[in-house]
Design a protein that fits this description.
With 439 residues, this protein is an alpha/beta fold. The protein has 3 domains: 121 residues, no CATH class; 61 residues, Alpha-Beta Plaits; 215 residues, Rossmann fold (3-Layer(aba) Sandwich), CATH 3.40.50.150. It is built from 21 helices and 12 strands. The strands form 2 sheets. Strands 5, 6, 7, 8, 9, 10, 11 and 12 form an 8-stranded mixed beta sheet that branches. Strands 2-3-1-4 form a 4-stranded antiparallel beta sheet, covered by helices on one side. Helix 4 crosses helix 5 and helix 13 crosses helix 14. The protein binds S-adenosylmethionine. S-adenosylmethionine (SAM) binds next to helix 14, strand 6 and helix 18. It holds the Pfam family RsmF-B_ferredox. Its EC number is 2.1.1.176. Keywords: Methyltransferase, RNA-binding, S-adenosyl-L-methionine, Transferase. InterPro entries: MeTrfase_RsmB-F_NOP2_cat (IPR049560), MeTrfase_RsmB-F_NOP2_dom (IPR001678), RCMT (IPR023267), RsmB-like_ferredoxin (IPR054728), RsmB/NOL1/NOP2-like_CS (IPR018314), SAM-dependent_MTases_sf (IPR029063).
Amino acid sequence: MTPGARLHAALDLLEEMAASPRPADAVTQAFLRARRYMGGGDRRAVTARAYGMLRRHARLGWWTGDGSPRERLIADLVLTDGLDRAALKGLFTGMGHDPAPLTAAERDLAARLAGQPLEPAEMPEAVRLELPDWIAPPLEASLGEGWRTAMAALNTEAPLDLRANALKTDRDGARAALAEAGIPAPGGVAEDGPLAPLALRVHGRVNLAATPAFRDGLVEVQDAGSQVAAALVAAAPGMAVCDLCAGAGGKTLALAGAMANKGRLLACDVSASRLERAKVRLRRAGVHNATLRVLDAESRKWLKRQAGGFDRVLVDAPCSGTGAWRRNPDARWRLAPADLESLQAEQDAILARAARLVKPGGRLVYVTCSLLTAENEDRVSAFLEGDAGAGFTPVPMADAWADADMAAPCPAPAGATALRLSPADHDTDGFFVAVLAKG
Ligand SMILES: C[S@@+](CC[C@H](N)C(=O)[O-])C[C@H]1O[C@@H](n2cnc3c(N)ncnc32)[C@H](O)[C@@H]1O
């Protein structure tokens, strides 16, 4: 594809994203599936432009008066790439698959923006930080002094983190298997990921799904922060463990590894389709001790019978996903204040349901990928103060960390009863973990 044709394809992708209620990654997958003729370099260039522009969405909107995807693209080429009029003309030729030549109004826009910085001093802070106005205050209140740095880190591209599957290999074995498949680039090595003992980190885009290391279940894609959250469950062989919001099984897989396939692992979710995806991943990873259960209207009685049956119950709660904005840069624009309110009610209800499943002497582990106190500390406090939390006490994070057998030192401050991870401070996605013991 010519450079102009790549821009045209990026524009088509951005227009599809703008018109679709679905998340950007789902739209991108469908877009690329429908264009199998595109080579690897073209795909990378097209998605890099589209995702880069998603990360600059508010700033480009500010400059273009919430302009169309095409106006934003022109603004991006001028403000980010520093292209001049002649360079734009060379891309917008209208020939072959290049985009149509600039109109008079578009030429005026490019002239107005020429030589301007992407972030001028007069740009409002929420725009500069790529935040919807309503969420800036609660994020600032939740993160305190370093919130601007945290927001900037949250708007960068996330690396690809993998977890070596302890059921099949160790970290060095997985690294060697990846290297054999040319991952990362030939001659490079997958470095150790932060904090989590089985984490490997790969920079740049790679076709992981095509490697034997992935197909044979030696590695799974999982952010290092998510790996830490799963490790803090401190699941061990022979235990009964329930992953109540298992989704597509990211943490279930890690729990199965920690249990060495021994004991009972129950993975539940309200979404049958996510559990279907978990099934495929569990099979590939060689997990034999997991049972999957879709939670529906009929499940109430069944769950009652499970009361007091588990050494560990993990609640990886549905949440705002603010901590994962590096991976889903469009998510911040799809979140509304009302979502946050209903999520908190859901989190309280799931915690109460989970509490009944824990054995005396067992643990309830509450996890979100949110950075907001309202979904984290406030939910744990509400739980402990309410009837559902009677008999539960928070485990000091240093103790939970020691129980999880982590090699790295505990990153939580001394005396903390919860762990907060963030891209700025820990180089992971944002996560919150609280471990609660049942007396
Ligand atoms: C953060 S995601 C889970 C991610 C998953 N644990 C992983 O590591 O890949 C939250 C999940 O909670 C599920 N969920 C929402 N409401 C639920 C409920 N009432 N009970 C159980 N699961 C629920 C959602 O379908 C979603 O899959």
